[in-house]
Amino acid sequence: MLPFLQPFVAPFTPVSPVTVDGLSLYLPPEPSRPAPAVVLVHGGPVPAELPQRPPSWPAYVGYGSLLAAAGVVGVMFEHGYRTPDSLDTAALDVRRAVSVAREHPSVDSGRTVLWFFSGGGVLAGDWLAAPPPWLAAVALTYPICDHRPGVQTSVVTPIAAGATVPVLLTRVEHEFDFVVPTQEAFLRAAPAVSVIDVPGAEHGFETINDTDAARSAISSAVTWTTGHALGRP
């Protein structure tokens, strides 16, 4: 079994998402009023021929369910980052997904957190450069914070120093060699970023490392994102 299709290592009560215009919305139980949203942005490139698509991957089902249990709307979708030259398409897909989510009646359009994973980290740049007033925070989990050589598009790190929203970076001890320098450069540019370190963990630890450290990191990241979404950081 592929590592990212293994079970989520943290305990959670599964929530069946509501499908709306290509989005999977994990709604809080019996919400009495619209709730803030946390939009999950998967990594890439994800090959078009891969049979199981990101919204059904165990990590995102787990995170979506945990977010809903914490009182926010977890939003998952698939963007078009399938090859290195499709990042512009993916960036537009992210904007569309955020717009659709914020228009849903179960969502408080005034507070949204964007949570980028792995290769999706390179899609965070525009949001950090010009955060809209409703963007409560940005989270990055084992992100690639810069593009590999040969990819012509804006990068995240030069923007980081001017970020005006709270930012969280979760990093793992056994990260891919090519990712580490991008994270280090990001943190040098933006020293105020909050950091969660996951000892003994690998890239994609949520379905790889069945350890207390991994579970603690998942819990801490969910607490951070929901806290900022709810205005209780």
How would you describe this structure to a colleague?
The chain has helices at 58-69, 87-103, 125-129, 157-160, 180-189, 212-229, and strands spanning 18-20, 23-26, 35-41, 73-76, 107-117, 135-141, 167-174, 194-202. Helix content is 28%, strand content 23%. The chain has 233 residues and is of the alpha/beta class. It has an eight-stranded mixed β-sheet with strand order 1-2-4-3-5-6-7-8, sandwiched between helices.
What is the end-to-end distance? 37 Å
Q: What is the molecular shape?
A: globular
Count of DSSP-assigned helices? 6
**Beta-strand residue fraction:** 15-25%
Could you give a short account of the major beta sheet?
8 strands, mixed
Summarize the structure.
This protein has 233 residues and is an alpha/beta fold. 28% of the residues lie in helices and 23% in strands.
Question: How are the elements arranged and paired?
Answer:
Elements (H helix, E strand, L loop, with lengths): L17 E3 L2 E4 L8 E7 L16 H12 L3 E4 L10 H17 L3 E11 L7 H5 L5 E7 L15 H4 L6 E8 L5 H10 L4 E9 L9 H18 L4
Parallel strand pairs: 3-4, 3-5, 5-6, 6-7, 7-8
Antiparallel strand pairs: 1-2, 2-4
